Hints:
Elements (H helix, E strand, L loop, with lengths): L10 H33 L1 H38 L2 H28 L1 H7 L4 H14 L3 H16 L5 H23 L3 H27 L14 H33 L3 H37 L3 H28 L1 H8 L5 H15 L2 H16 L3 H22 L7 H25 L3
Helix pairs in contact: 1-2, 1-7, 1-8, 1-10, 2-3, 2-5, 2-6, 2-9, 2-10, 3-6, 3-9, 5-8, 6-8, 7-8, 9-15, 10-11, 10-13, 10-14, 11-13, 11-14, 12-13, 13-16, 14-15, 14-16, 15-16
Amino acid sequence: MRIDLTRGGITRPMLLxxxxxxxxxxxxxxxxxxxTLIVGRALGPTALAxxxxxxxxxxxxxxxxxxxxxxxxxxxSMLHGAGETDGLKRCLFASFLLIGGAAVALNVGVLVFLExxxxxxxxxxxxxxxxxxxxxxxxxxxxxxFLYNYFACLLRSVGNSAAPLVFLAASTVLNIxxxxxxxxxxxxxxxxxxxxxxxxxxxxxxxIAFYCWxxxxxxxxxxxxxxxxxxxxxxxxxxxxxxxxxxxVMNFGILxxxxxxxxxxxxxxxxxxxxxxxxxxxxxPVQDFGNAFSTFVAQNTGAQKAERIRRGCxxxxxxxxxxxxxxxxxxxxxAAPLMGLFVDPAETEIVAVGxxxxxxxxxxxxxxxxxxxLYGLFRGLGRPGVSVVLTVISLxxxxxxxxxxxxxxxxxxxxxxxAVPIGWVLADLAGLFxxxxxxx
Length: 440
């Protein structure tokens, strides 16, 4: 089902378009939730710490590819909104070669330099073996991540957000089943959890690629589409590279904070690993709503409907704030039981650290909800450079404050936790400033 975001109502079509994206990413989180839950319960805190660190590193690596796909997707939406079919087909071909090449280079590079990366990020000696075993397997799923996200962004750019959900749902069920079999049945440890994730990613990638080839007319390329002008290539690289930089900076900052967290020992690593999963799950709806809003803005930018974009901004803000208030309430009230899903309640130190993190972050979800809308707005308007600046402000503040405050004995870990919402708020203020200087 395709939704035309350039005509008719605004709030309802945006929610209908965002719904499958939210459900899909919630399912994608289940990949990592399944690993964390089964590993934490079956293999203990050290294995949980290893999987948690690996998740942060993999998020950074795949963010490069996701950023390239999202940046190209914004351009695809504009061309679709403007009705430029031939230009869109040339853009699809050039983007596939560009992002596919980046995926291969990234995969090879990280496998070659894995040991120095682990050393740089201060993995505790007791977690080294499990981290190595997990990453050596899960890194082979990077190219599958590229394929799934490329075709998912293609479908969303033309208004179809439902189809990617089907393939992701199937692979999530497979991932959980393989996790249980490999870890609990075959006793393959963390490598088994990694293998389950890679196989499930492969299924979703193959499925969505085949579906697109059979059903999306835009992939029926002719010889004239197998090239692109210098101007078109410049637009593709500009949109893709800047969104890639934004995503990479965001997750590189998180990776640097992970390195700081690692220095506090395995128990704090384990608490952070579980709490970050809950945190990401809680604000995932507003993140995906921001991406759906970006498609709305991009299609209407291509169709030259500025007033519709302005009305969409007001509507999206109210929806995002409502999402965030509900998430904040639930996380703050149920922080301890949520931590108990991942960690044995007898591990009181781990649970206490995780609860502290969740309650500080949970109070401030409106900050990140607005930030995701600003990312989507500027990307959809063809100004991805502003999103990069906002990300640098948010993550730069987070990293700087975390490293400045955490060594102070009276503050400690709280300094790392409070640095996050402070960064969100500063980036929100900067985004509003940039928008007021050059509104729609």
